[in-house]
Amino acid sequence: MAGVAGRLARNWCRSAVLSPLQVFSFPSLQLHLSGTAMRASQDDFENAMNQVKLLKKDPGNEVKLKLYALYKQATEGPCNMPKPGVFDFINKAKWDAWNALGSLPKETARQNYVDLVSSLSSSSESSSQGKPGADREQQEYENLVVTSEDGITKIMFNRPTRKNAISTQMYQEIMLALKAASKDDSTITVVTGNGDYYSSGNDLANFTDIPPGGVEEKAKQSAIMLRDFVDTFIDFPKPLIAVVNGPAVGISVTTLGLFDAVYASDKATFHTPFSHLGLSPEGCASYTFPKIMGPAKATEMLIFGKKLTAREACAQGLVTEVFPDSTFQKEVWTRLKAYSKLPQNSMRISKQVIRKIEKEKLHAVNAEECSVLQKRWLSDECMNATMNFLSKRSKL
Ligand SMILES: CCCCCC/C=C/C(=O)SCCNC(=O)CCNC(=O)[C@H](O)C(C)(C)COP(=O)(O)OP(=O)(O)OC[C@H]1O[C@@H](n2cnc3c(N)ncnc32)[C@H](O)[C@@H]1OP(=O)(O)O
Fold it and tell me: Name one Pfam family in it (predicted).
């Protein structure tokens, strides 16, 4: 197979003066827009064809074959060529790749082509920005520790003395770190907490910093920031895993519904005391929680503020697996390191396929939740609960 791969590479590179990526735009990949069969995604398809030519990194023969096959399937349908002879290695490899797509519908092939190119573009972009590894330079954050090693980018909340409560600056930093992780070379991204808490949720002191426009302006700014924050999770393109090292409260619980896997220590608890704080759900939990655990269990958490143990949260489907605290870090990181070695593009594309149908809905839910909260923050119920906590008259 190595011989065939080598010959494939040479064959595609034979046009000599061309860079490997220009060569990669083999003749049959040029789009012949016939004006027929124009569909909604034709523009995306066309853009993807152009993007392929701009890739900075050679994606390798396996991916090239996949692109070739998807292109042929998208434009011509199932393989219609006679099978090349056994010694015609290159055409045989191309034929095999196309034929393997069977009766995949044209529009699915087109979509898969677009998705594959999009994943290649982002990894090619990021490869010019940095390499994975322990020594990789990381942006400095005040409230996070971000590291990248073994194909895993780890974003760790780092305000342990405040139980990792999320300040306004920390929301911004988390968004920045997620955006950077979405473009780096890592295969998976992990969010965790430093210290005994995963996170105690929104820093209740966030609402004491009132701008000149008054509390209404504060509520408006907070709703915009919250919407952006949650959108970043909804749109995150690669597997996102929460390593819940201890108790989680409020928004650090609701956003778990947007993660792809949640591993928890048996010391973790899951608490969304929105009614106690005069608030309402955020992080798309009004949609994801009833979907994950059924409406009755979601009501107990989101309306009555029932705190779940890690095992209860696992039984409800919010948590993937629970580990004894004594072996939690070792077991989880061993597993994550194994997962991080799986093929990057395949994982990305699988996530896209799994999440795509929900994306629009999640953005709409997020917008609605933020608009409701904007009003809630101005309510007496919420203001009193916040003042009671800050004046140390109450705790959860
Ligand atoms: C701005 C736009 C976005 C808004 C999004 C909407 C989000 C909603 C939510 O997330 S709702 C949930 C909000 N969180 C809370 O209500 C938790 C409040 N904290 C507590 O009840 C307790 O601190 C505790 C149960 C988490 C931990 O109790 P304990 O173990 O006794 O520790 P301490 O209380 O002594 O905590 C140490 C230190 O940290 C401060 N702190 C902890 N959590 C928060 C917080 N969420 N906000 C602000 N400050 C927090 C706590 O006050 C202590 O400070 P001190 O040492 O006393 O100065």
Answer: ECH_1
Ligand 1 centroid to Cα of residue 389, in Å, is 8
Distance CA 343, CA 347 (A): 6
Same domain, 169 and 273: yes
My answer on whether 92 and 188 are in the same domain is no
> Ligand 1 site: residues with CB under 6 angstroms?
162-163, 165, 200-206, 222, 225-226, 249-251, 277, 279, 282, 389, 395-396
Is 249 strand, coil or helix? Answer: strand
Q: From the CA of 243, how far away is ligand 1's center (Å)?
A: 20
- Phi, psi (degrees; rounded to nearest 5) at 131: -110, 150
Q: Closest residue (by CA) to atom 38 of ligand 1?
A: 162
Going by C-beta distance under 8 Å and a sequence separation of 6 or more, which residues neighbour residue 196?
160, 163, 245, 246, 247, 267
Domain of 272, CATH number, reads 3.90.226.10
- List, for residues 177-234, the tens digit of each pLDDT value: 999 999 999 999 999 999 999 999 999 999 888 999 999 999 999 999 999 999 999 9
**Nearest-CA residue for atom 31 of ligand 1:** 395
Q: Which of 169, 200, 233 to mutate to test the pocket of ligand 1 (most atoms within 8 A of CB)?
A: 200
For 55-112, the pLDDT digits (tens) are 777 787 778 888 999 999 999 999 999 988 876 777 888 898 999 899 988 988 898 8
Q: What pLDDT does 40 receive?
A: 57
CA 46 to ligand 1 center in whole angstroms:
50
Percent of the chain past pLDDT 70, that is, above it, reads: 85
- Domain of 148, in residue numbers: 144-394
Please write the tens of the pLDDT for every residue from 2-38.
333 344 333 433 332 223 333 233 333 333 333 334 4
Domain end among 105, 120, 135 = 120
Q: Are residues 343 and 282 in the same domain?
A: yes
Residue that wins the pLDDT comparison between 247 and 138: 247
The answer to whether position 127 is within a domain reads: no
Q: How far is the CA of 177 from the centre of ligand 1 (A)?
A: 23
Q: Is 233 buried (19+), middle (13-18) or exposed (0-12) by CB count in 10 A? A: buried
258 shares its domain with 116: no
* Residue 129, pLDDT above cutoff 50: no
